[in-house]
């Protein structure tokens, strides 16, 4: 009898241990995941779609190599909904099966395996220059400019996006117009109104169409789930930042998200503070990354920020390094091989004529903070960098004016083409044009 009781007790202990273990197992991040069959191979650069229930905007997809020494490699997510997620297979992966891991915060879930095929040489991306008097296709070997749009009075900003599905570039144009308006109607200088347009450059037909947008608003273009959107930052007494979908043919805007007051998010009063936007939005893991200059009568700080598309909130980030309180600057973001980088441009001095310096840094999109400095380029700016995964390089235009005065008419203008090679960690001036090129767009 004692022996039987002992067996029963041991059995109960085993069952109890199993139940305790099950109780400590965290719930799955998603349910009903469906992956492509392992018989289907995906080459680097191709996209993979996973379906399921419960995906969130903060989810990340990582590829785990057969040997842990190879580490996990993060994939770039190109589309995400609550029921599916699509990512691009990173470059440089070996052929064979690897494990897909879904990560959310500090938790991860193994989804299954995917077959990686042979790398297929990618087609060379086309490089375009948006200039003061025209739009040009740029020869990637000789850097010769071929006009594809005639001479016109363009006012391109650095807010440009390329839509590969339509082979189209969308661009924001703006300029300041003087009008007789009271100070109370605008926070801008008396009599200045900011006019904006949305430009559509169809690269299939080399035609351009421009439609007007609302006055006194800074607009920034971005693609979300393959559709054109505008992030709108009012320059008047309205301090709410909003996201709109937009019809490129008419400029008609439909509000998608009101992110609320930037003054409230930063903990200041909009009566005593203003903001200037120093970057175009970069979509990473469901967040639009941005950079702001927040300034009041006695204070000035440059901060990273993000707009969370899932939580519909604005999130202030860390202070931007290398920034100066009383000089101009710019901040850009780009992705490379599943990692995010930022280019911080600041003036090397306190004078408006001081030269620019550029700092390339790694960036943590979760904590909105800059990391290690990858490279520092003295006496040159970097505006709207274009990353090419085929060459593993960044391309950008740095325009300039020199000699003489504008009043005397003997000043000269031009643009330097810069490249940064990640393999050599070296930046160099590759070419100089006589034309004023505001920004580059890489069509890939």
TrEMBL record:
Signal peptide limits: 1-23
PROSITE patterns, A to Z: PROKAR_LIPOPROTEIN
InterPro entries: DUF4784_N, Ig_E-set
The keyword Metal-binding appears for this protein: no
Keyword Signal: yes
Pfam families, alphabetized: DUF4784_N (PF20264)
Record-annotated DUF4784 domain positions: 28-118
Protein name: DUF4784 domain-containing protein
